Amino acid sequence: MTPAAYVHLDLQAARHNLQQVKRYAPDNKIMAVIKANAYGHGISRIAEALTEADGFAVARVDEGVRLRQAGFNQPITVLQGFVCHNELELILQNQLDSVIHNPDQIEILQQHASDKRQLRIWLKMDTGMNRLGFKGAEFNAAYQQLSHSPLIQQPINLISHFANADDLLDDKTRQQVELFNQATTDYPGQRSIANSAGIIGWPNVNSDWVRPGLMLYGCSPFAGKTGADFGLKPVMNLHSRLIAVKNVAAGETVGYSGTWQAPSDTRLGVVSIGYGDGYHRHTRSGAPVLVNGQRVPLIGRVSMDMITVDLSSQANAKIGDPVTLWGDGLAIEEVAHFADTIPYTLLCGITQRVQIVEHPYT
Q1: Which of 98, 101, 170, 189 has the fewest Cβ atoms nearer than 10 Å?
Q2: Are 50 and 32 in contact (CB under 8 A)?
Q3: Which distant-in-sequence residues (6+ apart) come within 8 Å of 171 by Cβ?
Q4: CATH of the domain at 312
Q5: Which domain holds residue 197?
Q6: Domain end position, chosen among 219, 250, 276
Q7: How confident is the model over 178-212, as pLDDT tens digits?
């Protein structure tokens, strides 16, 4: 029998999506972004599936250390870099690459100038995201300082990040590329700027390395599109089962606060999943759910452990029948729309009580 809420991870889909990245960016090295526990998929599991990537990117030092301890030898870049001496020491011990994005980091590096180890870095330029990185003259000054540091492996790699690449009508992406290229034209070293939206939507701006994230997991970085529109396959498939089937009369309400009222006599099903599992609490009535592979609408509020669906179109549905919340046959982008959120939030929101398997139950 299908168990309560569980995730089936299709690792072959992850490998397929990596090949799609190579198709979109055939001349670039690939830094697979597997931060935030690989967007909720399991960092070691996804790293193992993506060993053909040229390197990995994580957000924080502890994520990189975890990958090294698991035996992964690829270059691993820590996108947030380090904020203290202890984190720098962990980066050096584990031979991680670090993004350098503020003067405090350079000061810490200067205090380690006598260290005989070498650190490979990515110097970050703020080209308009206004989050991390150096601007203008500060970028050039940081480059000069780091060029003379015996701790830093030369040449220095250069990195930036797109702010609006998911909007193909916004010229800011082109402006960011021009600013980045102009500022770094005389500098050697590898360059990286394109995320998933940049890889797919701005193919002429890719530099030496691309940094795919969302597309590796089968999702579209563009509103109104699904991963399938770009040849991608979903890696995460969220499933559960019916645990009750009952009838409600016209006029009766369903769920907390009675937000949904039956317009006529209705056959409904109760599904063992809720926000305690990561199914977004604010998902609206009408959101699609697959019961026995057929679409039915969500009705009423999402509660901690359960949701209710309208089974009027499924006269034979019964307790124990399989339910799909997103994945094959139901794009997560569509579910995210009904939750007024983005696929990232849903993927990263799966909670610890949800069993993760690599082979679906039948």
Answers
A1: 170
A2: yes
A3: none
A4: 2.40.37.10
A5: 11-219
A6: 219
A7: 999 999 999 999 999 999 999 999 988 768 999 99
